[in-house]
């Protein structure tokens, strides 16, 4: 769980250092803007912007019942963030599994990607799709949720 917050914490620390440096140089406006920018980057790379993650086994069970895709992701992944942003509100219709929190999820991703933990990996109807087009995923979301 520690590594889930490593990237966001590094963004905040770097932002604080850069902002402090700019403030000591007398540019407090620039310092404030930079600090806000780094905090926004930290939030974007944290688990906060993603729907609540569940375990891989539970996600696959739910997917079998409702036909919704399972999205395997990890914090700090730019492609996962892209997927989340492009899906918009529809992202809540998918079942999300954080592979850093769920060893079974990481194992499922490795099994689908020749031993690599390549994310996002979307499981739909028993087939894994590695880094699919977000528009394709959006088309396969169930409108009933």
Automatic annotation (TrEMBL):
Which segments cross the bilayer? 29-51
Cite the entry's keywords alphabetically.
Answer: Membrane, Transmembrane, Transmembrane helix
The keyword Transmembrane helix is annotated on this UniProt entry = yes
Pfam families per the record?
Glutaredoxin
Q: Which residues form the Glutaredoxin domain?
A: 70-127
SUPFAM superfamilies with a match to the protein in the record: Thioredoxin-like (SSF52833)
Keyword Glycoprotein on entry: no
Under InterPro entries, the record lists: Glutaredoxin, Thioredoxin-like_sf
| Name of the protein described by the UniProt record | Glutaredoxin domain-containing protein
Q: Domain of life, per the record?
A: Bacteria
Lineage of producing organism: Bacteria, Bacillati, Actinomycetota, Actinomycetes, Kitasatosporales
What species does this protein belong to?
Streptomyces diacarni
């Amino acid at each position: 769980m520690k590594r889930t917050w490593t990237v966001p914490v590094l963004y905040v620390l770097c932002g604080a250092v850069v902002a402090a440096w700019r403030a000591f140089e007398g540019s407090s406006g620039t310092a404030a803007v930079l600090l806000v920018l780094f905090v926004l980057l930290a939030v974007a790379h944290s688990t906060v912007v993603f729907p609540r993650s569940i375990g891989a086994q539970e996600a696959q069970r739910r997917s079998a019942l409702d036909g919704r895709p399972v999205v395997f992701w990890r914090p700090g992944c730019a492609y996962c963030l892209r997927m989340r942003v492009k899906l918009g509100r529809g992202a809540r219709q998918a079942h999300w599994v954080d592979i850093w929190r769920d060893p079974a999820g990481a194992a499922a991703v490795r099994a689908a990607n020749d031993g690599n933990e390549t994310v996002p990996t979307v499981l739909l109807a028993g087939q894994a799709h590695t880094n699919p087009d977000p528009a394709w995923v959006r088309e396969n979301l169930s409108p009933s949720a």
